[in-house]
């Protein structure tokens, strides 16, 4: 027996959109925030693909990263569905946008990037991928306001200056040294060692605690 709705229509009576996935991979390079992009016939775009039969969204996103940009074993999560009816001139396409952040050390020298300036791509991207990047940046900032460097964008051991500089890149603004220190210090532990002098006074090295959750006051400070 074929299922029908109250109007007597079966599922096959309704037009169906294609479903795609796109992944905004953020990283820090040259002391600026960037997103990984790939060349397409419509210009640069985020790594993405169409969902295949019997495939879930996460597997499709993983396949897109692997085949389009050579990125494997990356942890990512869903942002939201982009569903504007005319977002893709090829037809009715819904795209589930995903977000990830990774150290530039984990990326290939062949990867291409777009600079992020003031929270958005500095140059146009295909389709609505610029909006996806903007949402990925906001998502990244919310994560960094809750936890110390959750994406491990800097080394395992770092100085407070290096950590503050990372946060200034992520949040795209200067952060007062003493206020920043007060908010993050409870989520760190000292290593008992110092950085190499490098022409200046050695600085104490820290690492993240096993659960480096920031206090609510840090969120208010960083997201203000």
UniProtKB/TrEMBL annotation:
InterPro entries with a match to the protein in the record: NUDIX_hydrolase-like_dom_sf, WH-like_DNA-bd_sf, WH_DNA-bd_sf, WHD_NrtR
Renumbered residue ranges of the record's region Disordered: 191-218
Annotated ranges, domain NrtR DNA-binding winged helix: 153-207
Keyword RNA-binding on entry: no
Any one Gene Ontology molecular-function term assigned to this protein's record: hydrolase activity
Keywords from the UniProt entry: Hydrolase
Name the record gives this protein: NUDIX hydrolase
Organism, as annotated: Rhodococcus ruber
